[in-house]
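Each field is set out underneath.
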Amino acid sequence: MTLSRTKLGATGPEVSTFGLGAMGMSGMYGPSDREESLATLHAALDAGMTLIDTGDFYGMGHNEVLIGEALTGVPREAYQLSVKFGALRDPAGGWGGYDLRPAAIRNALAQSLSKLRVDYIDIYRPARLPAGTDVEEVVGTLADMVKAGYVRHIGLSEVGAETIRRAAAVHPVCDLQIEYSLVSRGIEDEILPALRELGIGVTAYGVLSRGLISGHWQGTQGAGDFRGASPRFQGENAAANLALVEALRKVAEARGISVAQAAIAWVDAQGADIVPLVGARRRDRLAEALGAADIRLSPDDLAAIETAVPKGAAAGERYPAMAMADLDSERKAR
């Protein structure tokens, strides 16, 4: 199959209707296989998946180096790179807040260009905008990088409606990257209407809630898997959420599709302005996810899915409390 294309927001690039989220290829979900990761990246390109999403802090740069290697020899116009920046790491793999000063942004961009082996980044975005951030200064710095040719488009990540408006008043924003799935629907109340008013697209990550609603997760995490700290994956919360998955499985089986395909197709059905990011790190999982691109859910299908997994039914937050406090999108919603 070959994915079709769509314009990302009113001012963004033309991208594939599904994108590839590469984070899991760099240890965030435990050990990954380098050769399989490279093969998955190549398989994504072969299927017409042009949008590749990463962050300069994934694996302390490992993810960007991996993608840069995979894309060597591929025509630059054949893909778009979406890169998040700003999160600080330490040698032990810990997290140290965010640095969004202009000099830090320029430094991060220079390193990403080198690791990815490219002359420009298609969409560059701060990973988070903590409370008190001078949004106008951050976007203004990015606008300078657009003028200089190092960045083609400015994106945002995990911010609320007010911040989106402030950012868009400084420079056009092509998309907001934010978690959106059957079990994470917070954007529907205020954020999504604001985006649509402003002509800003959505790149939806976590469409399978980090595997929780994939139909494959068995209730355990291995060493090095950050999901072990996520409330949704713990104890009674996990049991309650897996019960939702089983309800979704019945709907999916009746439709002749997999649980993961039902969940991804549901996100895809929420609007042409939403591009699901598939976090596959293996070719078989990628092939399953891509199968959702050909699924058209009927109103009856959507109603059955809604009944199986009602809005707000998930047990537990998607991040630990400290991480949730970093999210501008959550602060504005409360």
